[in-house]
């Protein structure tokens, strides 16, 4: 019998890679999608099969994390073995403009899903997409023992979701885990996050379509890894013997400026001619430095990031150039990843 997974946020960057990974492992994959007036499934269209086909293994269901009753009916219908809660209003800057909505979706949404699991009486394993933004102002390196000090409505909502996940584990003996993931990016990254904004601008400037890109704070430090590797880590957390919380990160550190320089240089462009400042992209409170220590995940799950930030920047620039040159969709093909069945030292 194949395992059955339910993914909230399946239309997002991580949801699309996770769906691919699980289908590759023989899972039946169910995804929660929001009803929209336009199509919002471009990241997973290549995985879609007509549900009438007998071999179909991916199914999409309408729903929303703001609708608790729907989550109960859906869980009863799907009866998943594993639930991955990836849905969120995930943009930190936007969370200052929409704090209440962010709290409702990113924070209370996780509680609604946990409560729906409990009420439906289904015995499943639960993954919560927690974030390095929870560490906020606490200086690096950050690991599972580092105190939280969120610096945005988004970070605060993720702290709430983290604690309710832990509470349901302790109160109801649920197999519920927090993956505390540092920034991870890819050619499928949303266009308003800084890495993709930069690599997309590089491609457009190179093609002569734009002259400038407007950015905010170039001094913040982030630990940027490659998203396809991180969804493997999520899956590994749910295969462990015991539920626990894990940091996933590369351990590297790069400023936004370093990322800009690497991306522009890779395309043979001088960044100083093209990058301009716009204060609208500053945040009322910034997170200055996030650098993760993922040694627990390496020790206990055999997980280790192999793509460092400079290589990631080049992958993303190449993909965005390819999109423009070939009007194609390079995100469909995930480049070969390490052999995850091999011990870490052998990779
Ligand atoms: P995206 O922003 O790409 O995807 C978010 C997903 O959530 C989309 O599928 C979106 O649907 C869905 N969603 C938003 N609001 C709701 C709602 N009310 N009900 C149901 N679905 C909703 O995020 P990522 O893939 O980058 O991240 C996945 C998760 O991991 C998020 O929770 C994020 O906060 C967290 N995270 C991400 C990190 C990163 O670096 N990428 C690092 C740490 C944590 P739609 O397509 O319709 O908008
Ligand atoms: P982050 O990602 O806030 O770390 O959250 P983002 O790419 O938005 O910002 C990273 C850093 O870049 C600076 N910056 C800009 N950011 C954006 N978006 N646009 C700009 O023009 C710009 N100029 C400078 C920011 O100030 C910041 O310091 C991401 C999200 O995926 C979260 O959901 C996730 O939880 C965390 O990563 C870990």
TrEMBL record:
Its EC number is 4.2.1.47. The keyword Chloroplast does not apply. Belongs to the NAD(P)-dependent epimerase/dehydratase family. GDP-mannose 4,6-dehydratase subfamily. The lineage of its organism: Bacteria, Bacillati, Actinomycetota, Actinomycetes, Micrococcales. SUPFAM superfamilies: NAD(P)-binding Rossmann-fold domains. PANTHER family: GDP-MANNOSE 4,6 DEHYDRATASE (PTHR43715:SF1), GDP-MANNOSE 4,6-DEHYDRATASE (PTHR43715). NADP(+) binds at residues 126, 212. Keywords: Lyase, NADP. InterPro entries: GDP_Man_deHydtase, NAD(P)-bd_dom, NAD(P)-bd_dom_sf. This is GDP-mannose 4,6-dehydratase.
């Amino acid at each position: 019998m194949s395992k059955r997974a339910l993914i909230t946020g399946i239309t997002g960057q991580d949801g699309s890679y996770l769906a691919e990974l699980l289908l590759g492992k023989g899972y039946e994959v169910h995804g929660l999608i929001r009803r929209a007036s336009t199509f919002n499934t471009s990241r997973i269209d290549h995985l879609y099969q007509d549900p009438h086909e007998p071999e179909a293994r991916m199914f999409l269901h309408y729903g929303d994390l703001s609708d608790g009753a729907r989550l109960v009916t859906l869980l009863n219908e799907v009866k998943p073995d594993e639930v991955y809660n990836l849905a969120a209003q995930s943009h930190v800057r936007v969370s200052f403009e929409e704090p209440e909505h962010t709290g409702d979706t990113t924070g209370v949404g996780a509680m609604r899903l946990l409560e729906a699991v409990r009420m439906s009486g289904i015995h499943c394993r639960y993954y919560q997409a927690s974030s390095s933004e929870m560490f906020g102002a606490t200086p690096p390196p950050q690991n599972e023992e580092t105190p939280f000090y969120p610096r945005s409505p988004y970070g605060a909502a993720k702290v709430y979701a983290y604690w309710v996940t832990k509470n349901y584990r302790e109160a109801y003996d649920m197999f519920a885990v927090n993956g505390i993931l540092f920034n991870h990016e890819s050619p499928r990254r949303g266009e308003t996050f800084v890495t993709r904004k930069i690599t997309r601008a590089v491609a457009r400037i190179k093609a002569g379509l734009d002259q400038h890109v407007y950015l905010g704070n170039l001094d913040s430090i982030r630990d940027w890894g490659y998203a396809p590797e991180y969804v493997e880590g999520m899956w590994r957390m749910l295969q462990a013997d015991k539920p626990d919380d894990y940091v996933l990160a590369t351990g590297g550190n790069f400023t936004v400026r370093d990322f800009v320089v690497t991306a522009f240089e890779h395309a043979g462009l001088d960044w100083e001619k093209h990058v301009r400042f716009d204060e609208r992209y500053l945040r009322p409170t910034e997170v200055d430095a996030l650098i993760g220590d993922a040694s627990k995940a390496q020790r206990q799950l055999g997980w280790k990031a192999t793509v460092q930030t400079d290589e990631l920047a080049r992958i993303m620039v190449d993909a965005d150039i390819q999109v423009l040159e070939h009007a194609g969709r390079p995100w469909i093909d995930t480049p070969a990843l390490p052999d995850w069945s091999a011990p870490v030292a052998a990779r």
